[in-house]
Amino acid sequence: MRGFAPQAPAGVVMIRPHHFTPNPETAADNVFQTSDGLRTSREISEAAYREVTVMAERLRDAGVAVHLFEDEGTSTPDSVFPNNWFSTHAGGHVAVYPMFNRNRRGERRADIIEMLKARYRVQDVIDYSGLEPDNVFLEGTGAMVLDHIGRVAYAARSNRTNEVALERFCTHFNFEPMLFDAADADGRQIYHTNVIMCVGTDLALVGLDAIVNPARRNEVRERLEETGRRVVALSHRQIAEFAGNALELRGARGRFLAISSRACRSLSAAERGEIEAVTPLLPLDVPTIELAGGSVRCMLAGIHLAPRASAGQAASHVVAKPVPA
């Protein structure tokens, strides 16, 4: 096991929505999105609010620095998934991304970037959102699963993952792009890479069967194993239960894997044992959030930046509200 883990952030940004609902604009290509006809819209939004609150508290209890921001608006139904619009990188770098759906572009928030600058050492912010008028999109660490150790950006091709934007990102941030086609059991294109794979420090969970080209599938597995990682192959059924949508974090007692309770239940006892031999599991209940087609990993924008000495860990636990327009 490695000591310091650049793969596992010790801090995250989360968004707590006050009016959560599955996004009607993303339903066409997000095959993991579902509806709930048994609860009212108010019941759904209240349940989502509670799920985010409890998840943030459990991560803080585990020793993760959680920066929790509120979204009190009604025009950004997917704001609970901030990892799509920005990412942070060692050396003080921040990237801001172009979003495919118009109602997702409003999720970008200056107050979050300003918080990062105030509490962490930020050298530069590279903003790719200007690519949107050219219909060029790259939805952050949803579109890409980044191996910070092997410097590989794994990416499933889709309308949310443009090859030109991927190449540009990799040039700026020193990653090697590994692009592939991915589909679910019915042959429908996978919309985001992070629903089929999770790359941790010593472990990778990957829906290998979802990678369409067998040669590319083997190449992905080989690249992961070259770095010494144990690869756990996930089935299409487990991918549909969000078993690939997990994130390794670093807490007070070391690294652990944040994963949804639903995803955890989809793993066999042998698979859970294989994972926990490497990294402890922290199951989190987010069934309402999962209606929107994303899970625990999508809810977490990891912070790979060095904290400012004056900020301190305690200061990162405040609940921040958006700056009024």
Automatic annotation (TrEMBL):
Domain of life assignment: Bacteria
Cross-referenced PANTHER family: AMIDINOTRANSFERASE
Protein name: Amidinotransferase
